[in-house]
Design a protein that fits this description.
Blueprint: H1 2-8, H2 23-50, H3 55-63, H4 68-96, H5 100-105, H6 117-128, H7 131-162
């Protein structure tokens, strides 16, 4: 379907193009899939946070002569900074540990182009029966994911101390 549409608009090189045979194309498809799956969570969370911003803050800023950009920078962003940080941390964690989508679409291939630490850990445990390497890869995943969470929590506690 995609190949037909691309060739119909003039991209003749995509006639019978094997999307999952090329590492870059497979990676691009997986990125689009994971982003598409995260959009509802991010959109609903940010919308929920936006409706909690008090209208009085916007009204006071408008009385002071603030424009749209100034309203966002001076009112919305400071109020929603914690939510932005939370959503960013959760998305980094969820995207980093993405296994199911990668395994179903490409099993980490072609040529390991889409192999992540969770996919590597699964392969090592299932095919080589090297559970020690699988545990090490899983521990490395947890350690790597703890870093952005630690940074976020540290910043959050600092902000709470200022209040």
């Amino acid at each position: 379907m995609v190949n037909w549409a691309l060739t119909a608009v003039g991209f003749e090189s995509y006639d019978e193009y094997a999307w999952f045979a090329d590492g870059r194309a497979t990676f691009t498809i997986l990125v689009l899939l994971v982003v598409w799956q995260s959009v509802p969570f991010v959109a609903l969370t940010l919308y929920s946070a936006l409706v909690t911003v008090p209208a009085e803050l916007y009204e006071a800023a408008r009385i002071d002569g603030a424009g749209a950009w100034c309203l966002f920078r001076s009112v919305t962003l400071p109020v929603l900074r914690g939510v932005f940080g939370l959503v960013l941390c959760l998305e980094v964690i969820w995207v980093f540990k993405c296994f199911t989508q990668i395994w179903v679409v490409s099993e980490g291939g072609p040529d390991d182009a889409t192999t992540t630490l969770p996919v590597y850990a699964y392969r090592v445990a299932q095919s080589l029966h090297r559970y020690d390497l699988q545990a090490a890869a899983s521990t490395a995943t947890v350690a790597l994911l703890a870093v952005p969470l630690f940074v976020y929590l540290r910043q959050l506690f600092r902000q709470e101390g200022e209040l």
